[in-house]
Amino acid sequence: MDPAAAAAGEEEGGEKPPVIYTMENKPIVTCAGDQNLFTSLYPTLSQQLPREPMEWRRSYGRAPKMIHLESNFVQFKEELLPKEGNKALLTFPFLHIYWTECCDTEVYKTTVKDDITKWQNVLKAHNSVDWLIVVVESDAKKKNKTNILPRTSIVDKIRNDFCNKQSDRCVVLSDPLKDSSRSQESWNAFLTKLRTLLLMSFTKNLGKFEDDMRTLREKRTEPGWSFCEYFMVQEELAFVFEMLQQFEDALVQYDELDALFSQYVVNFGAGDGANWLTFFCQPVRSWNGLILRKPIDMEKRELIQNQEATLLDLRSYLFSRQCTLLIFLQRPWEVSQRALELLHNCVQELKLLEVSVPPGALDCWVFLSCLEVLQRIEGCCDRAQIDANVSHTVGLWSYATEKLKSLGYLCGLVSEKGPNSEDLNRTVDLLAGLGAERPETANASQSPYKKLKEALSSVEAFEKHYLDLSHATIEMYTNIGRIRSAKLVGKDLAEFYMRKKGPQKAEVYLQGALKTYLAEGWALLVTHTRKQLAECQKHLGQIENYLQISSLLAGDNHLTEDERKRFCQEILDFANQQTENQGQKIILPMHSFAQLKTLHFDPPNAVVHVGGKLSIELTLLSQMPIPIQVDQIAIHVHFSIEKNNYRKTAEWLTKHKISNGVINFPNEVVGFPWSRNNLPALELYEMYERSPSDNSLNTAGIICKNVHMLLRRQESSSSLDKPSGLTLEDGAHVLKCHNLVLEPGVNKITFSTQAKEPGTYTLRQLCTSVGKIQFVLLHIYPIVQYDVYSQEPQLKVEPTTDSLLAGIPQKVKFTVTTGHYSMKSGDTLQLSNADAMPILYNPESKAVIYSNTREKISESSLRIQSSEKITSINLPVAPAYHVIEFELEVMYLPSATESAEEGENTTNKEVQRKNKEKQKLDNCMATVDQKVTIDCPWSIYSTIIALTFCIPFNAKHSLLSAGKRKYVQVCIQNLSELCFQLSDNNLKNTADCTDLQLVPLNPESQQVIYSKQSIFFVWELKWTKELPLSLQCLFSVSFCPATSEKQSLTLKPFTYEFQVENFFTLYHVKTEIFPPVGTEYCKTGSLCSLEVSITRLVDLSEVDRDEALTESDGYCTTKLMYEVVDNSSNWAVCGKSSGVISMPVAAQATHKVHMEVMPLFAGYLPFPDVRLFKYLPHHSAHSMQLDADSWIENDNLSVDKNVDDQADSSSIRSRGSLHSAASGEHKGLPMPRLQSFSSGQVFNCSTGMQILVIPSKDDHVLEVNIT
Amino acid sequence: MAVCIAVIAKENYPLYIRSVPTENELKFHYTVHTSLDVVDEKISAMGKAMVDQRELYLGLLYPTEDYKVYGYVTNSKVKFVMVVDSSNTALRDNEIRSMFRKLHNSYTDIMCNPFYNPGDRIHSRAFDNMVNSMMMQVC
Q: Could you tell me which residue ranges the Trafficking protein particle complex subunit domain spans (chain A) (predicted)?
């Protein structure tokens, strides 16, 4: 028989129920029949049964599972069968097997059948249907008894007798002890059957059990229901699952119990109390922690079974079972997690149920439990696994540390003096509640129990254990990157050290925590930690650090007013301490004390001249809660000279450095260098890159212009650094303010200084001294500067308008920059007078004095004294670095100069001619420079100033003729922007010619000439005697600006001098065109005759005396060339279009020329032009060669005409082509020349005449112009 | 319901933190600050694989004896932390989720305000009222 089964049997014999609480628990299978046979088969059976898994299909939709079956084979006894109502499952026999190897019918009939029947009856009596009959056959036996019936007959008989419908309840095992394939097969069949039947039994019996259990659970609302009873029932199920190695299912049972209990507690809290629960509310008397070392804590289980368990007992037992199962399931980390939940939960439940707990008892329980869980986990995992899963266990460590700490505080182990008697009593009570150490750990060197007992035994031991735990926790937190948690534990540790008067140890932790809070900007935590740190540093005697922290705290609005005042007072007390070493000063950063908000310059552009006054107004926001008496506030200034920089010159500075004089400082939040928050905003700009060749877009993007600001290294906790590298002895440039009171909030402090040396002054540092303490702002940022300059006196003269016009009074602005020179009374500007430019004195003119920043200071009238040579202007008294401005009227008189220098100075005329040329080129006004020499009072040298005047008018003349009558036209063009009134126009013959008369034909005496317009004046020339060859004329017209009303000044008129020559009419040319004979009108395409008649109007005169004149027999003739030209191509000239005629020089001599012309178009056609030239013979050419210009000019013409002469020019169009050939032929030959008449000498009376041409009838082409 | 509600910027400084006035404010500040350890851990554990369908609700960050701390992180890494009294067992996961969703919606409204600078501390009456309503119900 199985030894295990035997053991079970033995126990069974005792009074106690046969429960075997070990892992060796297996489902029970009873064996009846041939015990010897079974014993021989047992080894194979127990070995083979679990070898192959079997699928277990479950009820209630639970997932099927593969299961390895094992069994405990026990000899069949009737007592094993459960009685009615017995719910025990562990001892429940799931299957009953009857073994037999009977092969003899006789034997079967006599003994075996009866035996089986008896067995069956017992089973039936107990409603057990899970049975199996095994018939073992062996060849050996068969051989012995050869006369036996065929083997099947016994089996058939058994089947027939017992298994009326369940033939599968009888199996045959053939030759089980032989190693043959047949026996193997029969084994397999048997085992499969066995497993199937076992599982069937499980399903059936467990299902029934579960149903019963559920029924029991449903009764939970009934008054008599007991949780403990139910607990025991469901635990039975859990045990069975555990026995079947279904740990998951087992765990579910416990979890359900857990949830059920929790729900009851919650309901109890909500007022829905169950009677049975009140029992769990009994006061806690024992707090000896969890016990996880045994699979089942029998002590606690009994308490539950006997309904004597407290809440902690129940929870402890439940958790220990859960823990065991979880560890079977290889889920130790879940244990730690559940443990933490359990501990928190228990604490809450005790509170909720209002269970009375002695102070510290729970702390002990939690502490012991934490360590127990941790040790249990350590016991089942190796070091590497634990290290990798610190995050799961660290919570327990931390919780244990926390609990030990509170125990320490409770038992007076943290105080400096050690525990008092009350503390000791409490400790004794707590230790009593722990009870005796459990036997399983009693012999171990370390256990949670021992640890706690030791820790509570003495101050030193407590410190050791607390520090060990804390350090371990901090290390673990740090290792897994939970820095914040680590810092928090560190802070607890610091608190502990502070209690133990060990501030130097505390400081490290506080600083570390502070750094973290600062970096992440948690204001309240920063404040709190700073407060602790201040306390710590005070104890340590770190005066500087303490004062700094105090200043931060005094300005911290998270503290109460009183606290702030207290810290502020600390600072003041120290500052005012009278100590022997006066020299030693404490330097603290300023930002915690006060903040620089704005800075205001006066003058606003922060530029002053040497000796000038500059004031700087600071706005300081005092962070202190009370008014502070400040000894001195100093601004340290850095001085630099940049002489050669144009940007530092007075001119540039006063003009360009414009600002409102207020500099705002960025708001720095005290003590919160929120790294990212403090950064300046991104300055992003669009960027386009275009290809240089075709300007197409290559790249578009965004650039950040302040990358250097954003990406620079973050200064970590710069506010905590001690200010270093500070040079306070830079005494040369310090602005100071003494004895102030800084009120809380905004203060305005004004510094004033007198500028000394020119240069740039940069405000570097701000230093506030309070007694021995100096608060220093190391860098004033953004950069604040002011400039001091010196300036030489200067005079500037410039027109008030764009340009000065000659002839009218114009204003000129004088600007005197005094610079370092101050104007005394009697200082004058001496102007040398020029005749052409008198200075007009207006008694009302005023001089205005401005400061260098263009602020008007005063106004005074200007006194001007004029002598013949010199005009002296009395300057008003003005201090240095001011500007005096006044305006004077000047007038340039161009004609005056001209008339004065007329005839005597040729250079002047040249100037004028040059001006004319310039005017032609630019179409702008002629200019004249006028120089003035000025003597200034500040200099021994004269200043020469050039003023440029523009002449507003341009004049042209022309001679007009009508037959013999002559007219002179003068055109005046206004080039300026102004509008003028013209009057008293006059044309005079300057030569003495009395018989000549100029009759004006101009309607008005006064005319307005607008800007950019022209006006024409005409005179008729009349004469009585013979005309002179040339006529000298002088045109003059008075002008004044049309807008100015006052005519007080007598302005000089504009004059224009010119000469006309050879203006008398010599020839009269008349052209006539006649239609062909017999027709009324000219027709296109038909030839018409053209008649040119040239008539001499005067007898021989001076004008005719030239080479062309030939004289013979008292008759004079001259050679003329005529030319008919039609530039508009209206006419085709047939035959010669030009020719030379010999003209008698006598009045009324007429020469007529005929030629034929053909109109090319219909309509009114203008007559072709007829031109007349003087024809000079070639031999006279040499004498004319002196004037190169005219020779060349005439040469071209002569060539052209020559060609016309010689070539038979039958066609007009051939002229151009012949030209080049002919010119080559005649090169080098003396050539006749043509000379044109001057404009008045030939009068063409047919100019502008037209003749009607009608179209010919056969003209098929009709040209229609639509306009 | 909640005893403390905090909104924490991506950079881990508080944008908003408010606790029931009856209790020590400082304690909650410490609790919320420490919870950031777990938030960071959870965020990094979530990884980048499932950015789209990432669960914003982080669940229970850590329990203490007296309080439960829950976390929630928006896609822009702004964290919401809610501290709930442990004794308040009526509060289930689903309620916590819906409270966080409400908080998120209200926060989104703030972000939509053109006068609000992202990253500034939250001073909004609407948000205050909403937070109050979440804290009121039990007190």
A: 437-553
